[in-house]
Amino acid sequence: MPTAPSPLPAAAEAQQPPSLLRAMFARGTPMLWVPSGYFTMALTYMMLTSVTSIMFKNLGMDNGQAAQYASYLILAYTIKPLFAPFVEMYRTKKFFVLCSQLIIAVGFAAVALAMSLPDYMVIMVFLFGVLSLIGATQDIASDGVYVTSLDAPTQSLFCGIQSLSWNIGPIVASGGMVYLSGWLHTHYFHHAAGSFGADWIDAWRLIFFLVAAIIIVAALWHARVMPDGARAENAPTSVAQAAFLLQDSFVTFFQKRDVWLMIGFAFLFRLSIGLLEKIGPFFMVDPVAQGGLGLSNEMLGLIYGTYGLIAVLVGSLLGGMFVAKRGLQSTLFLLCCAVNIPNVTFLLMSIWQPQDLMVICAGVAIEKFFFGFGSVGFMIYLMQQLAPGKYTTTHYAFGTGLMGLCMMVTGVVSGHLQQMLGYVHYFWLVMAATIPSFLITWYAPFHQKH
């Protein structure tokens, strides 16, 4: 899952951060490894949990199966707090980063090779499951290097670079790789663009080889420039101690005041987004006769990887400024409206099925802009209200894990529901799913003063 910077102590935040220019050109600067580290994390995550759904559909799966299989791959990222303490026990964090990246690269190459086998789909899904576990381990170790190698002012300084670097991953994966798959399919292998089936194997095999090469290069680069990462102060020294810390973090989590309302908020805030995440791209590429817009992979990659991602980045920036100026408690419900109400653009496009690319791009950009604008409130709420306490970082991870669980559950059922209802009625369901988000946001507790 995408990981926001760990909440920092107030005293640390008050320190004067170093000059960005001086930090960027200092010897051993984090600029050498923070951008590449978080880009590699995001590329792995997006290839496994988002791009695979498009690939499954290209290969002939129906919407239900494609969304279901891709959503299962979120599970490892959802439960990563459960095995994070055990990663702390052995070797260095850099060791786990390098090992996980090498295994991921070999795994993607193995996926490409497996696509030549008769029962390639079974083997491929199994490999993706293994890679999701390794990818979650990469996230744990990379975050660990960031948190333990940088002092608090430098963490604050590089927070924006960290977030921007992560967001380049979706641009390359959901934009560049999907676009390239379509270009290879039609222009290099000369297959028909509008058909789904085994003809797509040729293009996707090259895509996975390319991703494997990128991650191998990243691993070699990180072997040279990434620091080892310091050992956390409360790092367990034995399996028994790691198990105790995990148990204690659960106990203290459920002792928080109004914890069930905060759990409900973490799970339900993005409910409608979870129903839309996989089906939105399917709607774009399905034929017009089946209720879709009939776009090619190339156009889908262009729209989501450029206009959509730019809209998310701009929305996130403005959302952060909005919260900083007016405070979270007074703006949280407005941010919830921003996340949910613009989903109506997909309902309108399913009713009218526009063929004008400007209209389609505008619809996606509107939805993504307001998603980025409103989602800032969700992450800040987890940091400021859910996470504070004895195990701040772990409890923050629990909150993001609940969000991931929501995305997995809604993703698993979304394709089957869409097939039952058709696109128009399904997008009406997405709008109805905004109601629980509004209710839980209205009653979200604020006990920590900021």
Automatic annotation (TrEMBL):
Q: Which domain of life is it from?
A: Bacteria
Instruction: Indicate the transmembrane segments per the record.
Output: 32-54, 66-83, 95-114, 120-136, 157-183, 203-221, 259-276, 302-324, 331-351, 357-383, 395-417, 423-444
What Pfam family does this protein match (any one)? Answer: MFS_1
Q: Which membrane topology term applies here? A: Multi-pass membrane protein
Q: Which InterPro entries match?
A: AmpG_permease/AT-1 (IPR004752), MFS (IPR011701), MFS_dom (IPR020846), MFS_trans_sf (IPR036259)
Cellular compartments annotated: Membrane
Task: Specify the Major facilitator superfamily (MFS) profile domain's residue ranges.
Answer: 30-449
- Is Transmembrane among this UniProt entry's keywords? yes
Q: Which keywords accompany this UniProt record? A: Membrane, Transmembrane, Transmembrane helix, Transport
User: Record's SUPFAM superfamilies?
Assistant: MFS general substrate transporter
**Listed name of the protein:** MFS transporter
Q: Origin organism of this chain?
A: Duganella qianjiadongensis
Species classification: Bacteria, Pseudomonadati, Pseudomonadota, Betaproteobacteria, Burkholderiales
